[in-house]
Amino acid sequence: MTEIPKTQPMHNIERRKFSCFGHWVLGFEIYLYFGAWYLEFID
Fold it and tell me: What is the dihedral of CA 8, 13, 19, 21, to 10 degrees?
């Protein structure tokens, strides 16, 4: 985690939050995809 400078505009901080959330959602979808593939593989 990098510290955010206090001089940074608020919209940049919001965009960074949204970007982190987007990466989290993408990671979760990949996790679900591989989980389903694994269940099919062992079945």
Answer: 150
